[in-house]
Amino acid sequence: MKKIKLLAVTSKGGHSVQLSRLFPAFNGMDITVLSTSNENPFPKEAITYKYIDDCNKDQIINTMKCFFQICKIVFKEKPAVIISTGAAPGVLAFIAGKIIGSKLVWIDSIANANSLSLSGKIANKMTSYCYTQWPDLVRDKGPKYIGSVI
Question: Which positions of the chain have pLDDT values less than 50?
Answer without folding.
Answer: none
